[in-house]
Design goal:
The protein is mainly beta and 623 residues long. The chain has four helices and 45 strands. The chain is 6% helix and 47% strand.
Length: 623
């Protein structure tokens, strides 16, 4: 058959097929759903036991299409809540689990599958995209582990979809069965899903609770109000200022800090609908002043600095990155007379706040403060500093200039133990005498922003110079964070020093020196810790920690041999007020918790007595 005859036959066959289709009413099938996932995002690292937010970015939902977002996650996790926000939308829509689709999936070992239904009629098919926010509570563990989260889109034609043929107007059957549209697969299984944008990896670290923070969680009406003289607050905001704090949240539309004016208006700093940090003007006229491009409702700690200079430029810094700035009218802050955390709106509160500092200076670049955000040290420019290490319903400042001030908490705002990345000193350094001639040194960090190296130093006796004994490079030292990079990193270090045998007693002091990336940066020093060193003692008593303390402190001592020991506490009049131990103990280190929430403030003494020696130390209880 020659080529001309082949072409004629092909043309005739095509015309026959088209004529046959028209005669019997067959048309090209309507397009099915083709939703697509752009990205599944999770934090790189969180503390085990904390809540975490998983973000799934996807194409907009199509008209007449039912959609479910399906996630596979560790079986030990629990789903808390989920919502979606469309690009350009000004509100969030809650989404709920849908068991019909979850039951279709086969699960990998050690995982659970949940499908979340996006059926609301309130959607825009022409939106640029949609983001799904899913919050899980994780399970505490005793070591580091890595978990994977996978996502898929499952869709079908909705009951409202037309069942009539577009050309012939005849009714036709509609296949309303569920199918996986992204990734496009015929089986409902996550085992073969390995595409990078559909899988998020999360590192869970065991991190002990090292501090306390202010938590507003689970209630719409939750807030803390600052009690201070209005004229003092007004005076503070009329000059250059900076407000810095750490926050952690798994929610949206959260009011962290509200600055209130006498006319009812004010300035609010918090999270927006998709978890972006923002500053806005509230009252009769709501106006956005500055918003960060970062999404920070992921359940990890972030640092925020709000700063206004003398020429009216307002800057918002998040995680020591370049600020978002705006020129504002001087009247916005000139009549601020009150400060509050949280509010009484209809949104449930879900955030932690820590290390709130009001400073009488402004910042223009992150380099001016980035190393200081890991240290809650005293600042000569401070108007007030709140560590939120309190108990009860009142938060008192650790540093204050001027008249007294304090926050009062309502019934749903609480202080709780936390894995806050900010400590009272840059690192937690401990020193323990494991044997008469060996000292074990350990320290932990929760942020190594601006830290290049640690230098360990020792001093012999109460006075004299410190000498360098060891230098260690920082594991996660960050000079300048990348956009979206967390500045929180949990790191642990250990070192030991072998000492010569000694007949007598000497007190050794150890401290850490934090070295920055630039020679122009001054080093930061940790508070010294002491070790009693000598071979003639059977009891070595440590200083209580923390000291001074508010309601609870720990007392530790070490025994070099099995002894009958009595550990007791006395007030400053010599009256015994508590006995923590009175019995025979084995060799090693022993730790006791002293609870003094109901004791009057003042100076107390604790004493360890054995058959051979008695050692006494002093401590201070604050209120």
């Amino acid at each position: 058959m020659n080529s001309d005859r082949k072409k004629k036959l092909g043309s005739s066959l095509l015309l026959f097929i088209l004529a046959y289709a028209c005669r019997f009413g067959f048309t090209v099938p309507d397009a099915r759903a083709n939703g697509e996932i752009a990205l599944v995002r999770a934090p790189d690292q969180i503390a085990a036991g904390d809540d975490v937010t998983i973000i799934v970015s996807a194409s907009a939902r199509e008209t007449n299409i039912d959609r479910t977002v399906v996630l596979q996650y560790p079986a030990t996790w629990k789903l808390k809540r989920a919502w979606r926000v469309e690009a350009g939308s000004d509100h969030a829509v809650k989404i709920a689990p849908y068991s019909e689709v979850s039951a279709l999936f086969s699960k990998e070992a050690g995982t659970e599958v949940t499908a979340l239904a996006d059926y609301s009629n309130d959607f825009d098919p022409d939106a640029q995209g949609v983001a799904y926010f899913i919050v899980f509570s994780t399970q505490p563990n005793s070591g580091q582990q890595t978990e994977s989260i996978k996502a898929a889109l499952v869709e079908r034609e909705s009951a409202d979809a037309s069942s009539a043929d577009r050309k012939s107007k005849r009714s036709k059957s509609v296949d309303r069965s569920w199918r996986m549209t992204f990734p496009p697969r015929y089986d409902f299984s996550f085992s073969a899903i390995t595409t990078k944008r559909l899988v998020a990896t999360l590192h869970l670290d065991y991190v002990p609770a090292m501090a306390r923070s202010l938590a507003l969680d689970g209630s719409m009406h939750s807030n803390a109000t600052l009690h201070a003289r209005p004229e003092d607050i007004r005076d503070y905001f009329r000059g250059p200022f900076s407000i810095s704090f750490w926050f952690k949240s798994n929610a949206y539309d959260q009011p962290f800090l509200r600055l209130l004016a006498s006319d009812g208006s004010g300035i609010e700093c918090g999270l927006g609908l998709i978890g972006q940090p923002q500053i806005k003007r509230s009252g009769t006229v709501s106006q956005a002043l500055a918003a960060s491009p970062l999404i920070c409702n992921d359940g990890i700690w972030h640092n925020c600095v709000v700063s206004k200079d003398s020429i009216g430029v307002l800057r918002l810094f998040i995680d020591a990155q370049s600020p978002v700035s705006a020129k504002i009218a001087s009247s916005y802050f000139s009549d601020i007379i009150a400060i509050a955390i949280g509010d009484s709106s209809t949104n449930n509160k879900d955030f932690d706040l820590d290390e709130l500092r009001f400073l009488r200076s402004s910042f223009r670049e992150p380099s001016e403060f980035e190393r200081n955000i890991t240290v809650a040290s005293r600042d000569t420019t401070a108007f007030a500093v709140f560590h939120f290490d309190d108990f009860g319903t009142i938060a008192r400042p650790a540093a204050i200039v001027g008249a007294p001030m304090y926050f009062t908490l309502d019934s749903t705002a609480v202080f709780r133990e936390t894995t806050s990345p900010v400590e009272l000193v840059p690192v937690t350094l401990t020193a323990e005498l494991l044997s008469p001639t060996k000292v074990d040194l350990r320290w932990q960090t929760t942020s190594e922003l601006g830290i290049k190296q640690y230098r360990l130093e020792r001093r012999i006796g109460t006075y004299g110079p410190f000498e360098k004994i060891l230098a260690v490079d920082a594991k996660h030292g960050i000079r300048t964070p990348r956009r979206g990079q967390s500045i929180v990193s949990y790191s642990s270090y250990t070192a030991s020093e072998q000492l010569p045998a000694l007949n007598g007693d000497i007190e050794l002091y150890y401290r850490l020196v934090l070295i920055g990336f630039s020679d122009k940066e001054l080093p930061i020093y940790s508070l010294p810790v002491s070790v009693e060193y000598g071979s003639n003692r059977d009891v070595f008593l440590e200083q209580n920690d923390p000291n001074p303390f508010y309601a609870e402190t720990k007392i530790a001592f070490r025994l070099t041999q099995q002894e009958v020991v009595r550990l007791s506490v006395f007030d400053m009049f010599g009256r015994e007020v508590a006995v923590l131990e009175n019995g025979k103990l084995d060799i090693g280190r022993h730790i006791y918790t002293l609870e003094a929430a109901n004791w009057p403030p003042g100076i107390y003494f604790y004493k360890v007595k054995s058959p051979h020696v008695t050692v006494t130390r002093k401590m201070m209880l604050l209120r």
